[in-house]
């Protein structure tokens, strides 16, 4: 309703009021003490407003002990939680999350005025230390739910928690609690949920203690400092349905006793130091939905018993040291939606039984030693497949997959294999395709002009293959048809393309004109893998957001002049046309590429003067015009353009002027403008990439000592700006 204002004190006259709910408005001010006059009140909901100030002690002392539900969450209350809250003996639900409360949580009761039934504490983002142990021992014996997540609690868990024998849920997620899990927690025979993720707990996971919690169904211990091995007593927690212990330092092997957890639905032990083999007993977890063992040191083969987990939806064994073939029994997991085995040492062929996985959405087998041909079914075996990643294996033969009509494929990465032959024309049926990476293979074909009209294609990487011929398309003659309407990354470098570059392409690249920050739509549990090759060093990254644009046609046999129409791509960040046979002058329209950060036109046959319009490119951090036939004076701007060194211009004997030692005749009577400090990165000798990660490091003014021509450049910052979240 978005009502505003304060609560009038006259509300205390509503003596027959039983329930007062004003949630989701814009009320502000203090909590009126006159509410204590409402002796019949059972439910009070002031959540999602803008109340502020301290919680009044007298209100909690005098309010009716018949109050059963109190919601004060999502406000701006500050101060401490008054101990007088203990007078509310009939309180079943207390929610005070997302405020600015501080101090200690009162866990002791004052002199009783009644008998409590159920108390649910939901107190978030407060800044206390956990109540001293002696108060916890007197705590709330009838408490059933205790929610303390997303605060700044510190110190150890009080042993007195063991006195809360009726406790069903204890959630202290996302705090700074230290120490070990106390043995007294084993007294909580009614405990069903224990959520202690994102704290600073240490020691070994006390499975023998936790197994005494005979009703425990969910155990969440991720992102702590637990160490040691997984004790075999974990097999005694037979009611357990969810076990998360990601991001710790757990060592040793997975105990075979884990196969006794017959009710387990989710098992996640990612980002630890587990070693040894995956126990075959894991195949007895018939109720399992999710199995995540990635980023450990597990070795040996994938047990074929995994094929018995008929309810499995997610199987992630990536980033381990697993070897041997992919078991054919994996084809029995017909309900599987996510299969990730990347970054292991798996060998053999991709089993044909994988074509039985008709519900698969993500298939990620990259970075293994898989051989043989790609199964023909991979283009049509699953109507929901959106990600197919087979990069960096030893797959050979032609791409014989037949892609079905109305498929959902968004990401196809076959980079770094030994694939040959032409591209299958059925790729044009992938109307949702956003990323196509077939680089670093042996594919021999003409340019696939038939994929130009894919409406969602944003990344096209064909580099380092055997593509050849003239890049022309009959469709470009039709002005009503845009080629690659959303393309932002176009890499066809290191091939055998020839002929003049078609002027019509630049007029069609609508996504490279006046583009604003866009992000690739992606699944919330999969990010497109990327590798950047920068100065000969590969950098592995976890995801790609297509926010910038790239054109790389280097190392081909293009000839003729560079079309002036390229100047309309004013959102272009990176352009590499080096190592071709382009002639003529550098187009003055390059001065319109206002977002350009890296430009390489080296090793061509370009002539004439360097156009002064290039000095307008204030974001340009890397320039290579070397090994051409350029002549005349290098333009001087006093800005970013003046920060480039000799190697940007070397191999052009007719060039003169700063920074070259060869002076122009008109400069005999005047010194060139001194350069400014700028980017300290060395000039890239021919840009290479295995994905786009763009940004810039602009040069900034700094004085240079007289006669000193040493320049220091700082590293480009665009890589950091391009990625968010690197899950790493």
TrEMBL record:
Its main location: membrane. Keywords: Cell membrane, Glycoprotein, Leucine-rich repeat, Membrane, Repeat, Transmembrane, Transmembrane helix. GO terms for biological process: defense response; response to other organism. The keyword Nucleotide-binding does not apply. Residues 191-319 form the Disease resistance R13L4/SHOC-2-like LRR domain. The chain crosses the membrane at residues 693-713. It is found in: Cell membrane; Membrane. InterPro entries: Leu-rich_rpt, Leu-rich_rpt_4, Leu-rich_rpt_typical-subtyp, LRR_dom_sf, LRR_R13L4/SHOC2-like. It is a single-pass membrane protein. PANTHER family: OS10G0469600 PROTEIN (PTHR48065), RECEPTOR-LIKE PROTEIN CF-9 HOMOLOG (PTHR48065:SF5). Belongs to the RLP family. This is Leucine-rich repeat protein. It comes from Handroanthus impetiginosus.
């Amino acid at each position: 309703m978005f009502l505003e204002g304060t609560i009038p004190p006259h509300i205390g006259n509503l003596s027959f009021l039983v329930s007062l709910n004003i949630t989701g408005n814009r009320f502000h001010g203090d909590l009126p003490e006159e509410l204590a006059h409402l002796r019949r009140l059972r439910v009070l909901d002031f959540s999602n407003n803008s109340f502020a100030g301290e919680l009044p002690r007298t209100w909690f002392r005098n309010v009716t002990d018949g109050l059963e539900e109190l919601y004060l969450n999502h406000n701006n209350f500050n101060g401490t939680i008054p101990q007088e809250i203990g007078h509310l003996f009939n309180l079943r639900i207390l929610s005070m999350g997302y405020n600015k409360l501080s101090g200690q949580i009162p866990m002791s009761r004052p002199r009783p005025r009644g008998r409590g039934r159920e108390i649910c504490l939901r107190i978030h983002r407060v800044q206390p230390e956990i109540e001293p142990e002696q108060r916890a021992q007197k705590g709330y014996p009838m408490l059933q739910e205790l929610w303390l997540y997303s605060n700044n609690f510190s110190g150890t868990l009080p042993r007195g928690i063991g006195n809360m024998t009726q406790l069903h849920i204890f959630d202290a997620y996302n705090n700074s609690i230290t120490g070990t899990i106390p043995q007294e927690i084993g007294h909580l025979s009614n405990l069903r949920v224990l959520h202690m993720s994102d704290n600073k707990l240490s020691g070994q996971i006390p499975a023998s203690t936790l197994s005494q919690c005979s009703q425990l169904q969910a155990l969440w211990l991720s992102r702590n400092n637990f160490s040691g091995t997984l004790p075999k007593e974990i097999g005694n927690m037979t009611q357990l349905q969810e076990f998360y212990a990601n991001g710790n330092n757990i060592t040793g092997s997975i105990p075979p006793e884990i196969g006794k957890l017959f009710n387990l639905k989710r098992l996640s032990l990612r980002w630890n130091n587990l070693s040894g083999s995956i126990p075959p007993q894991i195949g007895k977890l018939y109720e399992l939905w999710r199995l995540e063992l990635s980023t450990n040191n597990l070795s040996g083969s994938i047990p074929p018993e995994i094929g018995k987990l008929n309810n499995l939806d997610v199987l992630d064994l990536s980033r381990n040291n697993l070897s041997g073939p992919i078991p054919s029994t994996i084809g029995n997991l017909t309900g599987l939606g996510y299969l990730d085995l990347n970054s292991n040492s798996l060998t053999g062929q991709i089993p044909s039984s994988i074509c039985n996985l008709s519900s698969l959405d993500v298939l990620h087998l990259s970075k293994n030693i898989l051989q043989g041909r790609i199964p023909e079914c991979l283009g049509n075996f699953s109507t929901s497949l959106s990600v197919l990643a087979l990069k960096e294996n030893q797959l050979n033969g032609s791409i014989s997959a037949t892609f079905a009509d109305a498929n959902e494929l968004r990401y196809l990465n076959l980079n770094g294999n030994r694939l040959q032959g032409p591209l299958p024309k059925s790729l044009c049926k992938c109307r949702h395709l956003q990323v196509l990476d077939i680089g670093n293979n042996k594919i021999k074909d003409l340019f696939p002009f038939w994929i130009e009209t894919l409406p969602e294609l944003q990344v096209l990487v064909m580099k380092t293959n055997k593509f050849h011929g003239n890049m022309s398309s009959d469709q470009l003659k039709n002005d009503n048809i845009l080629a690659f309407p959303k393309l932002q990354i176009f890499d066809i470098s290191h091939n055998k393309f020839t002929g003049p570059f078609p002027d019509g392409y630049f007029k069609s690249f609508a996504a490279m004109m006046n583009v604003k920050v866009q992000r690739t739509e992606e699944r919330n549990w999969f990010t497109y893998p990327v590798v950047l090759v920068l100065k000969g060093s590969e950098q592995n990254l976890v995801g790609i957001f297509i926010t910038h644009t790239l054109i790389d046609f280097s190392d081909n046999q293009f000839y003729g002049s560079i079309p002036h129409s390229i100047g309309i791509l004013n959102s272009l960040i990176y352009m590499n046309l080096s190592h071709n046979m382009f002639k003529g002058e550098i187009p003055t329209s390059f001065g319109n590429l206002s977002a350009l950060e890296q430009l390489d036109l080296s090793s061509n046959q370009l002539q004439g003067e360097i156009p002064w319009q290039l000095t307008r490119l204030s974001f340009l951090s890397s320039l290579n015009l070397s090994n051409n036939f350029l002549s005349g004076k290098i333009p001087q701007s006093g800005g970013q353009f003046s920060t480039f060194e000799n190697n940007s211009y070397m191999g052009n004997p007719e060039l003169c002027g700063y920074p070259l030692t060869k002076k122009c005749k008109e400069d005999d009577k005047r010194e060139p403008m001194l350069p400014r400090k700028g980017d300290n990165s060395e000039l890239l000798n021919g840009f290479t990439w295995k994905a786009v990660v763009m940004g810039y490091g602009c040069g900034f003014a700094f004085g240079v000592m007289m006669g000193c021509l040493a320049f220091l450049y700082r590293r480009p910052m665009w890589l950091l700006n391009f990625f968010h979240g690197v899950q790493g």
